[in-house]
Amino acid sequence: MPRDVTEVLKEVQRIQIVASRQVNDLLAGEYQSVFKGRGMEFDAVREYVPGDEIRSIDWNVTARTGAPHVKKFCEERELTILMAVDISASGVFGSVRLSKLETAAEVAAVLMFSALKNNDKVGLVLFADDVLCYVPPRKGRSNVLRLIRDLLAVEPVKAQTDIARALEFVGRVQRRRCVVFLMSDFLGPDCSRALAIANQRHDCIAVTLSDPREHALPDVGFLTLRDAETDEIVEVDTRHPRVRALFAETAARRDEQLDGWLRRAGVDRLDIRTDQPYVQSLQKFFHMRERRVR
User: Can you list the domains of the chain with their CATH numbers?
Assistant: First the structure.
């Protein structure tokens, strides 16, 4: 059932206040120091002077004017940021204050307001088994608020996540290099090849979302668990230590497998848990990227 418009607008206002405060108080300057323009862009043509690089001569202008001219380039300052958010039904799960999808919305809002402060373009892709919504990157506060509203109003989809298809779509619609924040719980098939291909053209960052109850089961007796995407139901007796141990071991193996996928693809990981302050995770990630840039 679609969310009430008034409820969505109230949530947009709340997240706007929270995200703006986080950006101004805690993340000021950190985004700018990590995500800078990648490469050079054409600025102007001027007459050749001795000492100029011969390879920079603009032969068309030189032929037209009869005097040698060179192309002048400047550092590309503005970035294009694309938020690719997994809205499959597994994101509805949450055992603490926020679900994984609600946490993704807050983290995305903080990143969007950071981009806004840097005068960057921001776009949005919502996907599950296929791409369900695409908003091309634009500048401005109204655009950021619109993207947050779209993200909060979305209805989760009962379908298995297909990250490879989402990345293929990004490759088709976004020809110029951009920063892609891929936000998902990554509970799906191996997507390392698609990640590697996308990361060759773009700067891909895997924002991995998880909940503490996906890492460990509490001792609370019989539990009935339902898969949000397939509706499969299983019953688990959490009183047995071996059951809890097997669950934790399986979760740890899955996390190691995900690390392997990202390592093979050369993609950085921003780990976000619903039971931990995401601002600290963002700061840790920014510091790691800054050290590497230096």
Answer: 5-34+78-293 (3.40.50.410), 40-75 (no CATH)
